Amino acid sequence: MFEAKEAHTCPACGLRLEALSKLPPSYDALHEEPDEPLPPHMEPLPWTYAGRGRGPLLALAVLGLAAFFAPWVHETAPELRDLSGFGLARRLGWTWAPAVAFFVMIPLVLTRRSIHKMRGARVAVAFLAAVALTTVAMRLLFTPASSPLRPVRFAWGYGLYATGAIALLALIAAAFFGGKVDDLPTGQQRRGDEVLH
Predict the structure, then answer these.
(1) Residue 153, domain member (yes or no)
(2) Alpha-carbon distances, residue 100 vs 12, 57, 131, 186 (angstroms)
C-alpha cells in the first residue's frame, strides 16, 4: 500500500509498518501448512550429550592431544635428549598429523548434535583416527639409520605407543558413532493424529 520510504506508521491506526517478508506467518497460514514433525534421529540433542559414542570420542581426542606432548623418543646417541611428539614434529613435519587429527576431531564430534549427523560423520572421524594411527605406524616401521660415523641409538617412549593405542580405540569407536537408528524415542510433543511414515 505504501512505498518503502513513504510512511513509517499507518496514518489511520498508528501501527508501525513492516515489509511483508519480515512478518511471521499468519495464524491461518500456520494451520493450512503445519510443520512436519522432525524424525527422532534428526532431533537436536543437548551439547552435553555423551551417549552413542560422542563422549568416548571426545575423551579419546583430548587424550590423543595430551599423548602428543608426552615423550615419544628417548635418544641416547648422537645426543642425549627426550623428544615429545611436539619436539619430533618440529624436526619432521609429517609428524604433526596426529595432533592435527585429534585437534580437528574435537569440534567435529562436539558439533554433531543429532543421531543423523553423528552417523554421517563416522567416515570423517574414522579417517582422522586412521591418519593418527598411520603416522605412529610409519614412525615405528621406518627408523633412523645408524652408521659408523653417526651412530643413532634411541628407544620409543610411552607417548608414541599411547598415541597409537588411542588412535586405534578412536577408529573402533568411530565405527559405532551415532549408534543404530532402530526404534528411537522422540523428545517432541505429538498431538497423536499425525500421519507418520
Answers:
(1) yes
(2) 64, 15, 9, 36
Query: Can you tell me which residue has the cell 552435553?
Result: 48
* Selection from 18, 106, 17 nearest residue 56 by Cα: 106
Overall domain count for the chain: 1
For the stretch 161-166, contacts whose Cβ atoms lie closer than 8 Å and that sit 24 or more positions apart, written own/partner, are: 162/63, 162/67, 162/70, 163/64, 163/67, 163/68, 163/72, 163/85, 163/98, 163/132, 163/136, 164/132, 164/133, 164/136, 164/137, 164/140, 166/60, 166/63, 166/64, 166/67, 166/102, 166/132
Full residue range of the structural domain in which residue 61 is found: 47-175
Question: Tens digit of pLDDT for each residue in 132-166?
Answer: 999 999 999 998 888 888 889 999 999 999 999 99
pTM above 0.85, yes or no: no
